Amino acid sequence: MTDRKKGAQFQLTSRFVAILTGLLLIVNVAFVTISLYSVYYYLADQAKEIATTLEEVPQATDDWDALVDVTIAKNEEDAVRILLTDGPTYYSKDGKEIFTELAEGTALPIFKGIILMEDEIYYFQRHQQQGRTVEIAIHGNTVIEMMMRMLVISVLLNLFAVLIGSWIIYFFVGKWSKTLQQMTQEMKEIELTNNQAKLLSVPETPSEIKQAASSFNQLLRMQREAMKREGQFVTDASHELRTPLTAIRGHVQLIKRRGSAHPEVIAPSIDFIDKESKRLETMTNQLLLLGKHHATQVCKEVDFSVLVQQEVQKLQASCPQEVTFDIQENIHMYADELELQQICQNLFGNARKYSAANETIHIRLQANETIQLDVADTGEGIPDEMKGRIFERFFRVDSSRSSQVEGSGIGLAIVASIVEKYQGKLSVADNQPKGSIFTVEFPKK
Ligand code: ADP
Fold it and tell me: Can you name the CATH fold of 209-291?
């Protein structure tokens, strides 16, 4: 099949023509059948009418010739024959010839009484009346011709309807498929040129194509955004990993060059290498995690209240700060349990890391319009100008405490990325009198 024949325009038009022709064929066959029966009953009624008129004539009438003519005066081609039981046979005008020809005609098996002759068609009826047999032949050509004429007109009109209908459908489908062709063309262009700014043009109608084009554009935007993020991520990650590696190599060189002459440099350098390699390990683990939760996700009904409660207990057992909580029971979420755990561990861990041992950490979970988790600490807090940046990958606030605390700047990026996946919101605000409150909000489903 050629491409044109496979196209929507050709396919839809040919189907439409096939359906329309089929329907019209059925209608026309029904029309012919009904018309044929109507004509048949019309002829039979006419014959019956003549028979009824003749029935009323008494046996003793002596003017049969005139009588039969009067009876059929309506149509000269009709004929009547009266056979008296013990007397002569009377014919209407030209009746003898008509009945002689009728005797040679062919009777139809379905329409009883119809007799076909060379150019004529007759309806024949025989009646037994008091002392005589009345035979009536009704000429059917005129009615049949009229019916045929109507049939031809109807077929022509139907053909016209098919032609016009096909043209209209061809025109409209063509319009739609043109929009689709244009869309495919634009998609090919995007694929070939890899133009990152180009999107599909969205037509106003038909709405399905409008919807498809909008969805495709949305997908394209998301994919480009993701690719941009991935690219940025690789750059940031390489940069972040290179810095400690360069420092480690520097210390190794130092030990190699001066270690034997000045053994006192060895111990601090080894310490440094140990600390930095530990940091590298944590960072690579976190990087792996960041990539992993994008790839696999096992969602199920999770009792978020129980999960938070368990994480709070772990925190209480491992941190010097006082941990208080206010957890509403029976808050359920359809989510990946490990991801929810990750959110809690990163936020709780930060509250612990960035506040002194004598501070307080308060955790609150409640569900109203949304499911809301607050992690509040009374630690060092975050300067306003940094609040927007702490969710970026590898960003760390350069305060005296932050620089002393081990970290890679990935924890909050992980939280932000998980929260975003669940269409949630992550924000940070100042706590009173000091410290920070991290808030995660999930839509209720
Ligand atoms: P990390 O803690 O490994 O450095 P995060 O992404 O978890 O990385 O945090 C980014 C930065 O945000 C931290 O380095 C820290 O400066 C700041 N931060 C996060 N949580 C808190 C908090 N509770 N109090 C003060 N500063 C915080």
Answer: Helix Hairpins (1.10.287)
